[in-house]
Design brief:
This protein is mainly α. It has five helices and three strands, in the order H-H-E-H-E-H-E-H.
């Protein structure tokens, strides 16, 4: 969902969908890193993009978070994800941003459960389906983000 052929990156596809829905320019910055994980991505955002005040924060969790850590264990545990998500939620509330959770296809059940907890507590959540085209995922994500941008 994140990579692929030129023009198939989710952020680019989402920007196109949002521009069409809003009929105005819209920025969709993305913080792709080679080996990113939620806590690292959040630290990168708060360190390097502190002055950026988005109307919507899309907090994504990728498919390899439950494994592949340096010690062979989980890169991101449910407790770590819960803590990072709490920091993101606090930041969004403090800055008046709407938070949208996003899970790529293949996210482990334990981490998806953490995102579902947040969803039950009012955080919108979009989960990419296995085999779903990136354009379709972007369309569903845009349908979730657009209402926040129209407020």
């Amino acid at each position: 969902v994140y990579g692929g052929a030129p023009g198939q990156h989710l952020a680019s596809l989402l920007a196109r969908e949002l521009r069409a829905g809003l009929r105005r320019p819209v920025d969709v910055p993305s913080l792709p890193t080679v080996d990113g994980h939620p806590a690292q991505q959040w630290q990168l955002f708060t360190t390097c993009c502190a002055a950026y005040e988005p109307e919507v924060l899309v907090f994504g969790v990728g498919p390899f978070e439950g494994d592949g850590g340096p010690d062979g264990g989980a890169r991101t545990t449910p407790a770590q994800l819960r803590a990072t998500l709490a920091a993101v939620r606090a930041h969004a509330a403090e800055h008046g941003a709407v938070l949208v959770g996003f899970a790529t296809a293949g996210v482990g059940q334990e981490l998806l459960d953490v995102l579902r907890e947040a969803e039950r507590d009012g955080v919108a959540l979009v989960v990419a389906e296995s085999g779903e085209a990136a354009a379709a995922t972007a369309r569903r994500l845009a349908e979730t983000v657009l209402p926040a941008l129209r407020r």
